[in-house]
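In keeping with the milestone schedule agreed at the kick-off meeting, the structural modelling team has produced records for the first pair of proteins. Each record is given below as a sequence line and a structure-token line. The laboratory manager (R.T.) confirmed that both were archived under the project's standard naming scheme.
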Amino acid sequence: MSPRAAGVVLIAVSAASFGAMAVFARLAYDDGADVTAVLFLRFAIAAPLMALLMRLRGLAWPRGRLLAGLAAMGGLGYVGQSLSFFTALTKASASLVALLLYAYPAIVTVLSVLVLGERLTRPRVAALGVALAGAVLTIGPELSGEPLGVVLGASAAVIYSAYILVGSRLTPRSGALPASAVIMAAAAAVYAVVVAVQRPAFPATAGSWAAVVAIALVSTVVAITTFFAGMARLGPTDASTLSTLEPVVTVVLAALVLDERLSAAQLVGGLLILAAVVVLARAPLDRAAAPVAP
């Protein structure tokens, strides 16, 4: 398998893992857990597991400025993005917040050109446009919310875009596994402080705990590690575009697990995103802007 094909597969796995998180979270919330508790447990479970994987594989922890940069990605970037996103959900409809968040592939593309000097080929521009159109159809039309919800949703997209761009520079220097381990540990530390202040509602049933563990293992360890590994092979623009598979997975799983209705527009949106994936998978890698494989 070529590095590009491997990158596409890794980002697809990451998108599927992230996409499942909304369903796992809904199951946890239905059994009494709140947002802060779920986010804290997500990283508190994932971080020790990543440390164990690091030890088993004999990998060295990043040091110096690299360590500080990765810690900032977790403690500031990931925490800031997740708090903005989940707070926005209390101030605006889920569809509006999701649409604002999924502006991040376009933001990443523009910043990659301006800051990182990436070149935009016609297939990449076409794939981005098709993927964004598919995301709009997949997420749905129920758009309503307070101004604060709009600001927070847009902030989540901007923060996540910066997180991806910084990660595209730091991950090749540390490797996907060490980078993910530091990010999760930093996020866990910040959320531990938040939990100490807020005293949130933790899961109360076995089913709720199972959902939280699934979030930690599938939607955190697998999702973050495979994203960084895939981005190291594809670059931030293509990785972000392929990540629009996430809402497709969410919608399909919600229909299967939560009995939510799947509309014709959502099916069309899913097909458009899959078409964008095919275009990117077949597009040749621009060597002038090729990422460095770890």
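The second protein of the pair:
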Amino acid sequence: MKGGRITIEEKSTLSIYIGVGIAVVLTALAIYFFVLIQKEKSETTGFDPNRPVPSEAVIKGRLKAEEYNVVRRGGSETPFQNAFWNNERVGIYVDVIDGQPLFTSLDKYDSGLGVPSFSKPISYDIVVERPDNSEGMQRIEVRSKRSDAHLGHLFGDPKSPTGRRYSIPSAALHFIPKEEMKDKGYVKFLPLLDKK
């Protein structure tokens, strides 16, 4: 630097340092956001029984208003106007809160009521059945044992292969089609769809 002025060589060197600095900062930000996205994906993809159930604040932030109303407030949905009442694709239905597989398409049947109906859960150990005398009715409420999500109600039904009908609002479930199960972290549940 001669006489307080920056020379062309110094400008060139300074420009290189600034450019490298900006590149380093942008690379660091890109890596940071990539790690955040991967962390969020691992927290919401597939089912891991060792992963804790999300906090109530996280659940409320992730779920749509209708989903939250069903699983946390015991709400219902309109028959014949919900996502899965007439879904005939092969796959599994998982808990909207923690992704735990609850029902298979092989156990789904048309009850004629306009809500997803299943003859049985994947395992009776993953649901809790308890008396529900609300709204002046005697019913059996079905809840997810792990996430404590309200899943719906259990009724007797002669149309069901087991004589039992699990009426589960679509808003309590996410559907994972068989062809997407591997990519979404459910590969170990594929044999459930080979039973029949």
